[in-house]
Design brief:
By secondary structure, the chain is mainly alpha-helical. The chain contains 3 helices and no strands. The longest helix is centred in the first third of the chain and has 16 residues.
Length: about 90
């Protein structure tokens, strides 16, 4: 069963505030990973936390090409297929 967008957004927001000390008002659906100063290692840490929280395992390319918080929410809520943001040559 997929979580709804609001639940997923709240979960991501809480993790970003707690683990990365990002100000809650900066965590919007349009926020890019870059605008939140998240590098690739930080993003992997975020996905690892989501895996632990959800007791799931994600494939390495499930989040390839993700640029915004909304992209992550779309995958976790089931609105977008894992890997759907990857560049065409990575599918």
């Amino acid at each position: 069963m997929s979580a709804n967008r609001d639940e997923v957004m709240a979960e991501i927001r809480a993790l970003l505030v707690k683990n990365f000390s990002i100000s809650e008002e900066n965590i919007t659906p349009d926020a890019t990973l870059k605008s939140l100063d998240l590098d690739s290692i930080d993003f992997i840490d975020l996905i690892s936390e989501l895996e632990r929280n959800r007791k799931l395992r994600f494939a390495p390319n499930d989040f390839a090409g993700v640029q915004t918080i909304d992209n992550v929410v779309s995958i976790l809520s089931g609105e977008a297929a894992p890997g759907s943001f990857a560049p065409e040559d990575q599918h």
